[in-house]
Amino acid sequence: MFSLKVNGKVQQVDVEPETPLLWVLRDSIGLTGTKFGCGVAACGACTVHLGGMPIRSCIMPVSAVGDNEVVTIEGLGAAQLHRVQQAWIEYQVPQCGYCQSGMIMAVAGLLQRRPNPSDDEINESITNICRCGTYPRIRNAIRSLTGASKAA
Amino acid sequence: MRKSRRRFLIAGVLLGGVGYFGYRFLSKRDRLAKPAALKLNEREHALNGWFKITPNNVVTVMAPRQEMGQGVYTALAMLVAEELDADWSKVKVESAPVDKMYANITMLTDGLPFDDDDKSYAASVARRVGYSLGDTLGVQATGGSTSVRDGWEPMRIAGASAREMLIAAAARQWQVPASECTTRSGVVSHQASSKQASYGELAGAAALLAPPMQPKLKDPENYLLLGKSQRRLDIPEKVTGAAIFGIDIRVPDMVYAAIAQCPVFGGTLKSIDDAKIKSMPGVTRIVALPNSVAVIADSYWRAQTALAALPIIWDQGANGKLDSAAIADQFKRAMESDKAGAYRN
């Protein structure tokens, strides 16, 4: 039995210690906003915040979470939409939307550490994969939040 | 699926269908009904099966096609909202229930083994039979760039028909000629008497009227929404994690299967040692199939973990030793033979 702090709420889950946080969130707790993509930390669809840092939850064993606060896409804008979510609407970023929960969590995490990331820093930090190819809109949405000018 | 193969399959279905259902003439389908599957709460009214409306003027369009990022929820809602003269800021969209009236007929007629520009008698008969069969079968599918083409007529007619019902309800209430009433952004107005009422207020009375089957459609010059880029209606819930994808569906007592398939086309399952994983946590069943094996458990992770631990031996069959060079060689020989062909898609 593990006790987790998720989106400000304590949750008890009865799973094997090596169970990835992703499946605990989705199947044990019922927070399906976090998505399963590749299962090997390559695509970023499963990104959540752990202790304030974006992590790929598909390879994070539940036993390693400890007391660190978990924030998912459902928790990010629970009170009011996070500014990254607002920018995603403003710039009409999602297409199919499957990768965007992870994408938004990764970007929110980046902007918390680096309020004005350069293009290189964005490229290095946001390695999430979007099969629809929404990258140009993602970049413009990020730039709108950092004060950098929008690409033509 | 390759179009040639799809055409072949659909042509087969059509021939079978003619035998089963007989030939019947293309008739205007009753697509203005309210299907029993359309569930309304006590505040909602339906004037036909294509949208619901609440007293505070929120119009929820029933989209019979799946939103996959192609923007079809927004496009289909625009079709209804344009002819309805709805307040676009209060238009929502939901997945339609399953009913024959939502069938995708264009998908079936598209699959006919005739080119679009084929005007022959055979092609026109086949199209009519295809239409009729599409109606009878009621295939509610999404694909082949058919959603807007298929929705174009019935969803605009649904909006226009409902608009005429709302005007009729207002005219009756105000004792004025319907021809003097106008609509705009979810409101019916009668200028001479300075009367106006929202669609939401009129919907209850309008829902009791018979829907006009051939309402007047707008001249495209007067379109307010169609042909103009609109913000996507599906985006807000895609940024909060609320959007439900196939993987997010939960039903009572749901179990999860993890599947391994023979890594080689044409190969088969030789043997598994299921004793090794039978007692693993949550595992309920192990299903051996001719060319694959499924492990069923009470969670996806448990099913996948058990599958990974299952010893599986495949018989890779004739393709087991096939490599890229051999495949390239097959193509080369095919191209050089006189049997090389081309297909249009």
Description of the molecule:
The complex is a heterodimer of chains A (152) and B (345). With 152 residues, chain A is an alpha+beta fold. Helices cover 35% and strands 13% of the residues of chain A. Chain A has a 3-stranded antiparallel sheet. Chain A has a two-stranded antiparallel ribbon with strand order 1-2. In chain A, a hairpin with a 2-residue loop joins strand 3 and strand 4. In chain A, helix 3 crosses helix 6. Chain A is globular, with a radius of gyration of 15 Å. The N and C termini of chain A lie far apart (53 Å). With 345 residues, chain B is an alpha+beta fold. Helices cover 34% and strands 17% of the residues of chain B. Chain B is built from 9 helices and 12 strands. In chain B, the strands form 4 sheets. A 4-stranded mixed sheet of chain B has the order 1-2-3-4. In chain B, helix 1 crosses helix 4 and helix 2 packs parallel to helix 5. Chain B starts with a helix and ends in a 9-residue tail after the last helix. The relative contact order of chain B is 0.11. The chains are: A alpha+beta (152), B alpha+beta (345). Chains A and B meet through helix 1, helix 3 and helix 4 of A and helix 7 and helix 8 of B.
